[in-house]
TrEMBL record:
Stated name of the protein: ABC transporter permease
Family from the record: Belongs to the ABC-4 integral membrane protein family.
Compartments in which it is found: Cell membrane
ABC3 transporter permease C-terminal domain ranges (all copies): 263-380
Species for this entry: Desulfovibrio psychrotolerans
Lineage, broadest ranks: Bacteria, Pseudomonadati, Thermodesulfobacteriota, Desulfovibrionia, Desulfovibrionales
Source organism superkingdom: Bacteria
Record membrane topology: Multi-pass membrane protein
């Protein structure tokens, strides 16, 4: 009989109590693992959906602003040295950064001014497939253009120009078909026309050029500042800025989910630890005579302490393995019930299993520390008197 066989025999002898502790600890691990996986998928899904509310990074050409005033007459701000970006070049550089997997949408835009029905109006060249992802909040009467000369009209611009769905307008000498009118958004989108980027580049003789690029980056895997730093290195001739208000709103939503899950997990873990500690403490009180005999036979305090710690290690190891497997299976079931099984492909990782077991064993030993210390503190004479 050695320090390892004693805990195993005790657990086998008191199998009902051991089973109860294992079930409580195992269910706690199942809950925490499943919550972690579900929150990870829900968080990623939530962030992808948030990209439909606009970009969070803006790439613009470098420029120099000069405020001109002479003789009491102000000429306002003058922007010097503005050059348009090259669409293909910017996209290639953006997608070459280390965090390119965090880039959700790259939406180049070309801004031009023209007159439609003798009214000055701005025309924004866009890639409609990307705008459909980026501007998920648009409510459109009609639909997105399905032809190269199709345009979307903002609500204010439609009223000002007196045009509607199905009308034909002239943009820079080229005929364009109005495929939809955007409902009021309260922003700049209300006052402009949106046309295909290739069409606008052709009409205004600016092939391959864009005025600025909007980027929607997923913030869950890294700070947005890190993505901006890499973009600045990849695009040194441009100005890259994170739209902090949008970033903060998204991070708040993400952190709320993470903090909620963390709080629930900590509560579950605390209850499980209390259960293990209370059960081990009761076991120590029941085994005072046994501890006294072990001490009389020559077992040191450290040996007795180790016997109870090994019991906690065995329970924690078993609860960690089965709890992880059960939690992974439960998370798949929960995601299927939430109709989110296809959002992200979950896979079982041996490293996660090992880390879970290590953490559960550590927590289990920590919970059993006081009962083990109490058992090691029992004097042999005190225990033998009770015989």
């Amino acid at each position: 009989m050695n320090i390892l066989t004693i805990p195993l025999r005790t657990m086998r002898k008191k199998w009902l109590k051991t089973l109860l502790v294992f079930v409580v600890f195992g269910l706690s691990v199942v809950s925490i693992v499943s919550l972690n996986y579900v929150s990870m998928v829900v968080g990623e899904s939530l962030e992808k959906k948030l990209t439909a509310f606009g970009a969070n990074i803006l790439v613009t050409p470098k420029s120099e602003k000069l405020t001109v005033s002479y003789g009491g007459f102000s000429m306002g701000d003058m922007v010097m040295g503005v050059t348009d970006l090259r669409e293909q070049d910017v996209e290639e550089r953006v997608l070459s950064i280390g965090y390119s997997d965090r880039i959700s949408v790259v939406a180049p835009k070309l801004v031009a001014m023209t007159r439609v029905r003798d009214v000055a109006v701005g025309v924004i060249g866009v890639r409609f497939a990307r705008e459909e992802v980026l501007k998920g909040y648009w409510a459109i009467e009609g639909g997105f253009p399905e032809r190269a000369d199709g345009v979307l009209v903002g609500a204010k611009a439609a009223r000002k120009l007196d045009i509607g769905v199905g009308d034909t307008i002239d943009i820079g000498g080229y005929s364009a078909h109005v495929s939809g009118v955007i409902a009021p958004t309260g922003g700049d989108d209300d006052s402009v026309l949106f046309a295909d980027l290739g069409f606008v580049q052709h009409v205004f003789s600016r092939p391959g050029e864009v005025s600025f690029v909007e980027i929607a980056a997923l913030c869950a895997g890294c700070p947005i500042e890190d993505i901006v730093v890499q973009l600045v290195e990849a695009l040194p001739e441009t100005e890259v800025q994170a739209l902090q208000s949008i970033v903060k709103q998204r991070m708040y939503a993400m952190h709320f989910v993470e903090h909620l899950i963390l709080t629930v997990s900590l509560v579950i873990l605390f209850i499980a630890c209390c259960m293990v500690g209370a059960t081990m403490l009761a076991s120590v009180n029941e085994r005072v005579r046994e501890i006294g005999l072990l001490r009389s036979l020559g077992f040191s305090r450290r040996g007795v302490f180790g016997i109870f710690c090994f019991e906690a290690v065995f329970i924690g190891m078993a609860a960690g393995v089965l709890g992880y497997l059960g939690g992974f299976a439960l998370s798949l079931k929960v995601l299927a019930l939430m109709d989110m099984a296809g959002e992200t492909a979950l896979s079982m990782h041996p490293g996660h299993l090992a880390l879970t077991c290590l953490l559960v064993v550590g927590v289990s030993v920590l919970a059993a520390f006081f009962p083990s210390w109490k058992a090691a503190s029992i004097e042999p004479s005190t225990a033998l008197i009770s015989l």
